[in-house]
């Protein structure tokens, strides 16, 4: 996926980027400091997400992207379309045509494939592609 890097804080390895509707902060895992501007990366959700609490089915037409959580909440909201839930409870969510693999807890709904979903997560890691 391509993001737009707008800031990097070397002591903490935090990178600020824009992607699909907002400025997001994640921990940078690359060896080299990212330059400002467009960068191809992979995103990792660091926490297991719970069905019915962190993961919800959305209405058709929900705007895909990544945005900060609401006021007074930490983390981010990922909105995309479910490609599948694997046999080992990994949700594969397409966010603006980029697949993200998210470990899940609990019982998934009976029907998930193709449905719009939102996932609330506390932390993201950002890695250069093929890191």
Care to describe what's here?
The chain is an all-beta fold and 131 residues long. It has one domain (2-128). The protein has strands spanning 2-9, 14-18, 23-28, 37-45, 49-50, 55-57, 65-68, 76-85, 90-95, 98-105, 116-121, 124-128. The strands form two sheets. Strands 5, 6, 7, 8, 9, 10 and 11 form a seven-stranded mixed sheet that branches. A five-stranded mixed barrel has the order 1-2-3-12-4. Strand 7 (65-68) and strand 8 (76-85) form a beta hairpin. The mean pLDDT is 88.
SSE class: mainly beta
Q: Mean pLDDT, as a whole number?
A: 88
Helix content: under 10%
Element-level helix/strand string: EEEEEEEEEEEE
- The shape is globular
Largest sheet: 7 strands, mixed
Radius of gyration: 15 Å
Instruction: List segments where confidence is low: pLDDT < 50 over at least 5 consecutive residues.
Output: none
Number of spatially distinct domains:
1
Number of helices, counting only DSSP H or I runs of 4 residues or more: 0
What percent of residues are in strands? Answer: over 45%
Straight-line distance between termini: 13 Å
Number of strands: 12
Describe, in short, the structure shown:
This protein has 131 residues and is mainly beta. The protein has strands at 2-9, 14-18, 23-28, 37-45, 49-50, 55-57, 65-68, 76-85, 90-95, 98-105, 116-121, 124-128. The protein has one domain (2-128).
Any chance you could write out the topology, listing elements then pairs?
Layout: E1 2-9, E2 14-18, E3 23-28, E4 37-45, E5 49-50, E6 55-57, E7 65-68, E8 76-85, E9 90-95, E10 98-105, E11 116-121, E12 124-128
